[in-house]
């Protein structure tokens, strides 16, 4: 036919013959439908070019054909125009076509306008005769069985022209939310499923057809995980699984195409396993395979398999409201999976599986069993397989496929499956039935507690009224506050969020009633309602906070209210939430644990066949948080072979396994087990989801962050010891002295005297060891320059030392302006209201929002779009998208265009580092309280911080040393004096002799010393629990027994009254905790052995600890009577024992005994540097307390050294660190040669040479490099 183009599109169910005449002429189209198999779906990719009217005409013809009798009366077809996203159809045109074998020819005339860009469309479809969707793919969330993130897979699928992509990660859906996100971003329909491990070790892929099927699938996984308990057995029982998937979900109302589709699996599937060795077709057991498939079909196949797979299936349904599912028989569905390896057995396998599928009236569908996105990722996939099998690539060879398991396009799959091309097309047809929008699974929140006669809205308003009256008085007394509150309540009500606020309030109220310190943080501090409800401590009205930073009508989803709870009691709060809302409706959020340099190098080296010792050596050479490549921020990775580094670099930051988020919880109004798989966590009575916090938010689950904060524990313990001694809170500070009334106030975070000069003296001196948030090296270096004088200065300090302001070059300009070394200027007067408090330097996200309102005429809600842009991964691109709107708005406000562009440029750079002012305010209150206690009540402060360990920046040894430098007495752990944790001891007997009393005055540090209100009659007594091997439970048992029946008389008495193993008795003896019994340490150690040897085995000891049970001592056998002469431990030996067993020594600095020799060699102390000029070359010695490599420091490494006089910050340039890295990383104490750097009251050392210092007990350092 001259001037006619012919197009042939082949699919499982039909082919199109399209002829196109010359340009501008009507286009005759012949549609020929050849129905080859059940389940025909007639999709047309030309639906965007063919008008609905034309489709209606085509359906009219199909309707006429519906009256024609079929051979078996079954079958059907539907013509569908598909929308831009999976499962969403622009219009459904369904017409039953009863004859499954009849061929129908149709002729239609379609105007040329209905085929816009027709040539391009025809060329595309002629090139891609087949259609394909991948129904079996694994991402990195299969953990060592997938090489690519879901986004990479989706991107590759789009490049290949796939019609949809399924994610089938192992035994759950940990990557499914990111999969759905990727699908939306790339315009790719997504199918959601998993590959389950069965009891016999085989793998069974399961795909959800719709939200109802998804809920059933997830519920089945959850129930299995919870039933397995601590065993964490992934093996599912097949009948139990089938029963769970066939249950009728509550959302099921009939007329669906079933709930799930089961695939028979690949080489590890039950069908292929029953068939036999995949490489020996001559031994295949067809009878066993037939029996296996029959069993699977009996369990999973739709009752009427004569109908097309994917067509509507009628099932008995029972609708039950309120969640869960009921007994019934929802249709599932089964398909035989055909995955080929490109090997010599492909033909035989195709033939046998096709025969089995036909015999059982099941469809045969092709999949790729994908493990990576592209051929370039295949090597990484193989490495992950070897890692999973704990072997090298050679050892894993038998488990690797003959051809790579990467994504393939339709034509590649058709060539691979040339003997069964319909199986390729069927994958696309099934995918169109299986794809659905994951957002449909989002649950509602549970109902909040509301008294009778109230609704959630009216009860929230009542609680807010009560709190506002306490804070602000009546509306007449503070009209502005009540105006703000009413506005916020109106917004909260309009968004339907009253229940959310009531739930948070109930958690805070539980903490308050239980005596647990709790405080809201983050953007919630922008809300006056949160302040009135007692959720936050920041007065949003007083500080003029932007509510829209927290919540606005234009923002989707719930706001974030994070609660800081004292760490040691957070578990009480978590269990309260479980108890109140039900374990089936509450769960914790997962953390994705990713590869880091050390684990990446170790696994890469193993996969490439290097010996175990070499793997460990190379791994130890890696820094913890940097890259694996040499140079810049890394160390001696040049010793590691390039192939190992190449593989390790690809592994770096890939997900490796799931952990538990420290405090994130989700609450659902329906069982959370139906939304995401749940398992038991390692901690008792905790259940955890498979999703991290970002996935939960994306899926519509509301997350509540119950975050443990050690500083809150320290503060509460300090308040408790003050209250126990009858101390009350001072009313005010007058001329530097505390004034306390007769009544006083209870101790609390917000009852302390405001603006106490002692706090600002302490902060200016950088005397902040142990003080929340301002105790780090960088904070201590900034405080003397900032010289805080009021509370808002603390807010600024909290925000300044963050990666964003440092990278954005905001720190130095602010400090220069603060010290009046630089003029405060503004690009335009309209910026002054937003930037005046920070001297014209933008620091906070709220300032950017305020600038948008003041300078560009944005509404506060519109300004929130800027805030969201700043928080996005591609913040610069999102800011650029707002460029025109911002500049136009500024010009409308009278700002000339060049100035408007300058302001925009500043905002654009600021987008990368803005910090929430509300968050800084919340933390600033804790900084003030912590600093006040250190300055005014130092004994209680140090006891609280030591009792709350582990927490903070400094080790217990450094905290004790800091206390001693300030003249605070610190006494060792003692079985007759100590509690389980450190506390304050009032010393009434000044004559009591104790080794800890012999403390020497130390040179004060820093150079500008603070003045702490030290009390001579008070001391810090260390606790028993930190002694190695003892722990909180046994320490408390020792204390409880002593309080009930009096002090212990000797070691025998202690062993008789408390269940202690020999090793624990020896730890008590060696640590000096038995000194008050009158037995020197070595004699006490010997006595512990005698108790075990002479009296059988000590009560409480395990066989591993050389004992069973201690029997009461016989008369006359007191331990120690026949002890041989033993030398008394020297001071250095006692110090080493203290540090080894408790991590703390009250004997002084480990360098004290070495000082004479060091001084003779010209080695200075930390305090000596205060008298050194800038640029002087000196040598200093100290114990290494920290090693840090901030990402903002351009390769610099920072060391903290501590000696008997104080602390010193040492900076190491990247080149110098590479030369001395081995020494710098391993030595517990160093002699450093370098040059003095001083300025604005800060003294540091720029290192030139590092030398290990021997003879110092190992104390351990806290390293971030």
Number of domains as seen in the coordinates: 6
Largest sheet: 6 strands, mixed
Shape estimate: globular
Task: Point out poorly predicted stretches.
Answer: 1-50, 64-128, 251-256, 306-329, 631-635, 989-1010, 1095-1121
- Helix fraction by DSSP (H/I, runs of at least 4): 25-40%
**What is the radius of gyration?**
36 Å
Secondary structural class: alpha+beta
Determine the strand fraction and express it as a percent band. 5-15%
Strand order of the largest sheet: 8-9-10-12-14-15
Number of strands: 33
- Termini separation comes to 74 Å
Under the CATH scheme, which class of the largest domain? Alpha Beta
Find the CATH superfamily of the largest domain: Metal-dependent hydrolases
Secondary structure tally, helices: 43
Describe the structure.
By secondary structure, this protein is an alpha+beta fold. The strands form 9 sheets. The chain has a 6-stranded mixed β-sheet with strand order 8-9-10-12-14-15. Helix 13 packs antiparallel against helix 14 and helix 34 packs across helix 35 (938-947). The model is unreliable at 1-50, 64-128, 251-256, 306-329, 631-635, 989-1010 and 1095-1121 (pLDDT under 50).
Task: Please provide a brief summary of the model.
The chain is an alpha+beta fold.
Features:
glyoxalase-related enzyme like fold, 6-stranded mixed sheet, TIM Barrel, globular, 43 helices, disordered N terminus, 5-stranded mixed sheet, single chain, 1265 residues, alpha+beta, 6 domains
Task: Show the helix and strand layout.
Layout: E1 5-10, E2 15-20, E3 27-34, E4 42-43, H1 52-65, E5 77-82, E6 89-95, E7 103-110, H2 118-127, H3 150-160, E8 165-167, H4 176-186, E9 190-197, E10 203-208, H5 211-228, H6 238-246, E11 248-249, E12 260-263, H7 270-275, H8 286-300, E13 325-326, E14 334-338, H9 346-359, E15 364-366, H10 378-388, H11 410-416, H12 421-434, H13 456-472, H14 479-494, H15 498-513, E16 518-521, H16 528-532, E17 562-566, H17 570-581, E18 586-594, H18 597-607, H19 612-621, H20 642-651, E19 655-667, E20 678-680, E21 687-689, H21 693-698, E22 702-709, H22 710-724, E23 732-734, E24 737-739, H23 757-764, H24 777-786, H25 791-800, H26 803-807, H27 811-818, H28 832-835, H29 845-856, H30 860-871, H31 875-881, H32 883-892, H33 897-910, H34 917-936, H35 938-947, H36 956-965, E25 969-971, E26 983-986, E27 1018-1021, H37 1031-1045, H38 1051-1057, H39 1062-1070, H40 1081-1094, H41 1131-1142, H42 1155-1160, E28 1177-1188, E29 1197-1202, E30 1207-1212, H43 1214-1226, E31 1229-1239, E32 1242-1252, E33 1262-1264
Parallel strand pairs: 4-5, 8-9, 12-14, 14-15, 17-22, 25-27, 28-33, 30-32
Antiparallel strand pairs: 1-2, 2-3, 3-7, 5-6, 9-10, 10-12, 11-13, 16-17, 18-19, 19-22, 20-21, 23-24, 26-27, 28-29, 28-31, 29-30, 31-32
